[in-house]
Amino acid sequence: MANLQSIIRRLATLISRLATVEASCEAAIKQAKGASDQADKLLQENQQLKKSNRVQAAESASGDDIEGLKQRNARLIAELNEKDNELKKMKNDLVAMKTQSEGLHKEYDRLLEEHSVLEKKLERSNGEEKKDK
């Protein structure tokens, strides 16, 4: 009887851990998707900045003096570098989240397997108790 109680208690613990892992896994997947979307958005912004910088430089080159163009170019390069750094950070975050998500999936699979084994033990134990009675 004590063995059955410990198996049931272990099953309850595993089910609780399984639910926690599932929630963590879903959260990590959502977070990874958000980071991926943000990285895509930054890529698009980066491309738009490059395109608009070329157009603006071509339009204003005729009216601006060379010193003003140099300052503007330096400012735009700094802005572009900042966006590139943000993009790199987002990509790194995405890779980390994907790795975390894979780890959660492996843990989830392991817990499912352990849960299955314990359920089989419980079924066998219940079957033996019924035979004993």
Task: Walk me through the structure.
The protein has helices spanning 2-60, 66-132. Helix 1 packs antiparallel against helix 2 (66-132). It is mainly α and 133 residues long. The longest helix has 67 residues, at 66-132.
Helix count, per DSSP?
A: 2
Strand content: under 5%
Structural class: mainly alpha
Give the CA-based shape: rod-shaped
String of helices and strands: HH
Rg of Cα set: 29 Å
How many beta-strand runs?
0
Overall mean pLDDT: 84
**Helix proportion range:** over 70%
What is the first-to-last residue Cα distance? Answer: 13 Å
Low-confidence stretches: none
Q: Tell me about the biggest sheet? A: none
Sequence-ordered SSE layout with sheet pairings:
Blueprint: H1 2-60, H2 66-132
Q: Which characteristics define this entry?
A:
0% strand, mainly alpha, 133 residues
Entry summary:
It is built from two helices and no strands. The protein has helices spanning 2-60, 66-132.
